[in-house]
Structures are given as structure tokens and as C-alpha cells.
Amino acid sequence: MKGVLWLAWRQQRLMILSTLALLALCAAYVAYRRSEMAELIDATGWVPCPGWNGGCESPATFRIMEGNSAGIRTLGALGIAVPALIGVFWGAPLIGRELETGTFKLALTQGVGPRRWFAARFGLAALVAVLVAAVVGALVAWWWLPIANTLDGPYWHDAAVYNATGPAPLACALFGLAAGTLAGLLVRRTLPAMGAALAAIGTAMVFVTFFRTSWIAPETRITPGDTPKRLVGSAWSTGEFGYITPDGREYPIMKFCQTSGDEMRACMAEHGFTGRYHKVYPSGDFWTFQWIDTALYLGAAAVLVGLTLLVLRRRTA
Fold first, then answer.
1. What's this model's pTM, rounded to 2 decimal places?
2. CA 237 to chain centre
3. Given its phi and psi angles, is residue 144 left (phi above 0), alpha (psi -120 to 50 degrees) or beta?
4. 105, 118, 121, 167: least surrounded by Cβ within 10 Å?
5. How many helices (H) and strands (E) does the chain have?
6. How far lies 154's CA from each of 54, 75, 234, 314, in Å?
């Protein structure tokens, strides 16, 4: 390692080493908690109670859920926070501090162009950012999988699981770094740049979360007549359900036949309803959502990096 890469390592090594140490402690804690869960599962002979099907509850189920759900969700919350932490505490000072103190001039007087200087600093930070997001996501998935989509435990669509696992969190970490770096370059003062980065990253994550269900249409499950409805299982319910007519028109239950048994059958006959519908996203949609989110975050990160290079060239010209 030499040149600008060596300089980037020297300037970021404290952040990198401290981050890796925290990851190691987190991994040790998860390994300990998961081994406890595995021992309890083996000792009780527990069989997962899939989805919201019910009818297979047991004292062991509640012990296992109670002892691990909160921990998994807490670790998942850390995964959600990773992009913001990277953008605020790593991205914003990455170039902003150099511009604020003027130390970037020293590097540029050594025959190193601004693009090469930026590439070394940002590239090293991006590598570690992806590593952090990947490790946290892997730990969440590893701890969660034995009780995945089980009764009242964490499901694939829970924020703590969805936003910490899969490819999207890695892309979001890169976006967070890119947003923080551009904020530092534009603001040129570290603390205000941190605030701007946090606002930008938070806004983007809220936007993606709010519009996620607009990317693809849910699956409509239809139950003929008054026969028992298909159980939700591990699917993500949209909360949209009601009645249908022979021509396929949908009538929300909030406006019609909010009853059950004989009263429901009478109401359905009165309005000409021939069945019921329920809109859900099956668990297989996890990957569809993830790849769409990944494309959005990577596209935004690429745009921000391009803007950073453009502004950097003008300010160091």
C-alpha cells in the first residue's frame, strides 16, 4: 500500500479499526444469543409455527419468541441506522473536513489530481461501508432464520428484518456515504454537513419506504362464497379486503357487511356478493422489493458521486 491509498488509510484507519472492533463485539454477542436459542429449540423439540396460521402455539414457542424477537429487532434497527451513521460520521467529514482545514492542498501539491485523491478516500470508505452493512445484515439473518415468519415473531416485511438484510441495505450504505460526502463538499463545515447529510439520508429512506408498495401490485386472493378464507401465512397483508361481485368488482369491508356468520351470508346475498378478496404481498416479493430498492439507492449514489466529482474539480481548479 502506497501513495494516495496509503494516505487514505492513514487518515481513516482509526474509524475503520474502531468500526471493525464494534462489529466483532456485535458478532460475538449474536453468536452467544443464537446458541442459547438453538439450545432451547433442541431441548424443547420445538417445531416452528409458520405464519399467522395459529393452532400450533406452545409454551416453547412463546419462550423462544419472547427471548429473541426483541434482540433481533434491536439488531435490525442498527442495520437501519447504518447508512445514516456512515453518511453522518464518515461521509460528511471525508472531504468536508479536509476543505475546512485546508489540508487537501498538501495532497494536491504532491502531483496527485483531485479525482485520484477523491477515488482513494471514497473507495476505501465505500469498501468498509459495504462490509459493515453486509456483516450486520448477515448477523440479523443468521439469528432470525430459525424463527423466520413464525407466529408473532419477526416477519420478512418487518422493518428491522427487511431494511437490514438483502442487497438493498448495502446499496443504501453506499448512498449514505455518497450523500454525506457531497454534503461535506458543498457545506465545507463538518457539523452543518453532518446535519445536512442526516436530513438527506433520512428523507430518501422515508421516501423509498413510503412508496415501496407502489412498485408492484399485490396478489389478490379470492375466496368463493362464505368458505373459510385462505390464511395469510407469511404474506404481507395490505389491509385491503372485502367482497366481490360476479363481474369482479371489489367492495371494501369497511363499507359493506361488517358481520360474520348468518348475518354476513344474508348481507352478501342482499348485495349480490359471490366471494371475498384479500390483497397481500407473498414472501417471494421480498426479493422483488429488494432489487427495486437496490437500483434506486445505487442510481442515487452514482448521481451523487458524479456531482461530487464535478464540484470537486471546480473547487480545486
1. 0.89
2. 19
3. alpha
4. 105
5. 10, 4
6. 15, 12, 10, 49
